[in-house]
Design goal:
The structure holds two protein chains of two kinds. Chain A is an all-beta fold. Helices cover 0% and strands 53% of the residues of chain A. The termini of chain A are far apart. In chain B, the strands form two sheets. In chain B, strands 2, 4, 5, 6, 9, 10 and 11 form a seven-stranded mixed beta sheet that branches. The chains are: A mainly beta, B mainly beta.
Amino acid sequence: DQQVKQNSPSLSVQEGRISILNCDYTNSMFDYFLWYKKYPAEGPTFLISISSIKDKNEDGRFTVFLNKSAKHLSLHIVPSQPGDSAVYFCAASEGGSQGNLIFGKGTKLSVKP
Amino acid sequence: NAGVTQTPKFQVLKTGQSMTLQCAQDMNHEYMSWYRQDPGMGLRLIHYSVGAGITDQGEVPNGYNVSRSTTEDFPLRLLSAAPSQTSVYFCASSRVLEALTDTQYFGPGTRLTVL
């Protein structure tokens, strides 16, 4: 059973508009949430994270929102740029323990000029 | 800094063959890990290490062995390759305290096909 779900396999957005990528989780013990970006033939690169004690974290054009009661988080990219076209993975962990970072299946974002 | 390097980039094996995927990092990171990514799937943790001489199993460890004799290197051994091990393998490293809460640095991946 998937603990981290990204239900949209793909998303297409116009350049300059907002991209919203969604992620749901089932394990209430998760207390850290991370987003990674992956280009083809490359390894994932860390984008932004949020602790469960916060409901928002912002870094430049990227903002992650966390709704603990709904077990839902989202990544907002504003404004979207063609270079943002990549696969975005949501990941979660029980931050205090060692071991597993649980990844979702990813959402492929295409930003059209 | 080279970051995290992986060799080879591509490999084709026959069922039953063994091989070692190499991973090295030059950032003096204590934490290193191996993931596999299958089509349409997220990354799944195979094994990880929090320092030289210390390794532990992840989510999908069967069929794989690891050892950590130095801080820099974390090789992944396939003991007897099976078609189910066809995948893209990523090695990652980070400081221990950031492994599950912040940045892990990933290598470029090894694409393995088992016939």
